[in-house]
């Protein structure tokens, strides 16, 4: 599919000023993953169009990773993949800085010209495996190369007693951890806590972690799908065999210096009373907005990934007539200079950019 990508500018009321382009705030069709730890809340809580039968673990909302491609859901660009949009005009979509970064020759050739982040929703009706992800340097040595995976979670719903496992207990070094794994005592080494709705947990690459049963989570991460599984609670596959573990690979990438991980402390944004910063790292910035009145967010010449955590909103320039509700997501191109958001009801949003 071929399009000329420009941008639709909008005035204070959200009305089109001059039809310069075809880029606009984008909704995508979700991609679903059915894993044994999934449930039904992607449909019942987040209104995702899952099938009537089966368990659904993940909804990939915005992704450009090989064959896994987000497809524009509506408007003039309906049917276009996210990767096609980048190929046509990466600067308009991503902004100058990010567009330059994804073209860098320092990246393996298969990782160039890709959208740098992945947004997903996860429904954990059972504990996820205990796992770890490599960093960029380690990922580049894989075959085929992949990005590292630094990620952050926003807790949307939590059944009482649900746990998050994040980092190792204080004093657990490589030798102690390897001995515990060999003895079947992995769980004893893990730091855990019971999260609350609204908590944000930052998981840099190299951090051992697992999302516990009963949690509904929005996750922003690097656009990588490389996972090393360390422990899987004794579960077996459909054929009765234990699930594959990656002990050696995990020991090579775990950051044994990082220690326990707790929910982040929000930092108020001095220039915007509606916003707090949750994560500001070299891979992405993540903020939370609490809105009850119309609000404008400056895109600062970079794309903005938006997920509704609660409530309902409208965004100026949205090609859909529907409001964005809990669990709905949107990608606002960098060439849209600011985002005018009108809450239909009081809302909380997570907003990420690179």
UniProtKB/TrEMBL annotation:
Gene3D superfamilies on file: Jelly Rolls
Binding, Zn(2+): 133, 151, 209
Co-factor: note: Binds 1 zinc ion per subunit.
GO molecular-function term, one example from the UniProt record: mannose-6-phosphate isomerase activity
Cofactor(s) needed by this chain: Zn(2+)
Keyword ATP-binding: no
InterPro entries xrefs: Carb_Metab_Reg_Kinase/Isom, Man6P_isomerase_Firm_short, PMI_typeI_cat, RmlC-like_jellyroll, RmlC_Cupin_sf
EC nos: 5.3.1.8
Entry protein name: Mannose-6-phosphate isomerase GmuF
Enzyme active site: 229
Residue ranges of every copy of the Phosphomannose isomerase type I catalytic domain listed in the record: 27-142
Any one GO BP annotation for this protein: carbohydrate metabolic process
Keywords, in A-Z order: Isomerase, Metal-binding, Zinc
Enzyme class: isomerase
Organism: Allorhodopirellula heiligendammensis
């Amino acid at each position: 599919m071929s399009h000329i990508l420009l941008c639709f500018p909008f005035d204070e009321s959200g009305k089109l000023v001059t039809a310069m382009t075809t880029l606009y705030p984008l909704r995508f069709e979700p991609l679903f993953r059915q894993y044994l730890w999934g449930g039904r809340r992607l449909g019942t809580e987040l209104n995702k169009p899952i099938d009537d039968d089966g368990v659904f673990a993940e909804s990939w909302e915005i992704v450009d990773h090989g064959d896994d491609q987000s497809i524009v859901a509506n408007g003039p660009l309906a049917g276009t993949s996210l990767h096609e949009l980048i190929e046509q005009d990466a600067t308009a979509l991503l902004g100058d800085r990010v567009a330059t970064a994804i073209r860098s020759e320092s990246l393996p050739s298969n990782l160039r010209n890709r959208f740098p982040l992945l947004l997903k929703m996860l429904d954990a009706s059972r504990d996820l495996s205990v796992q770890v992800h490599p960093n960029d340097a380690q990922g580049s040595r894989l075959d085929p190369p992949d990005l590292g995976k630094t990620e952050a979670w926003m807790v949307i719903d939590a059944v009482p007693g649900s746990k998050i496992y994040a980092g190792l207990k204080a004093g657990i070094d490589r030798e102690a951890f390897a001995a515990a794994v060999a003895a079947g005592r992995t769980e004893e080494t893990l730091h855990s806590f019971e999260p609350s709705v609204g908590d944000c947990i930052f998981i840099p690459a190299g951090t051992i972690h697992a999302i516990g049963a009963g949690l509904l989570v929005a996750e922003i991460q690097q656009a990588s799908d490389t996972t090393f599984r360390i422990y899987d609670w004794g579960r077996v596959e459909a054929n009765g065999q234990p699930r594959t573990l990656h002990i050696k690979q995990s020991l090579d990438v775990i950051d044994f210096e990082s220690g326990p991980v707790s929910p982040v402390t929000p930092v108020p944004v001095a220039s915007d009373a509606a916003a707090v910063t949750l994560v500001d790292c070299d891979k992405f910035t993540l903020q939370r907005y609490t809105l009850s009145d119309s609000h404008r967010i400056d895109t600062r010449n970079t794309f903005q990934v938006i997920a509704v955590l609660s409530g309902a909103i409208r965004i100026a320039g949205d090609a859909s007539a529907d409001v964005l509700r809990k669990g709905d997501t949107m990608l606002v191109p960098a060439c849209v200079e600011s985002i005018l958001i009108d809450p239909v009801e009081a809302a909380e949003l997570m907003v990420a950019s690179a």
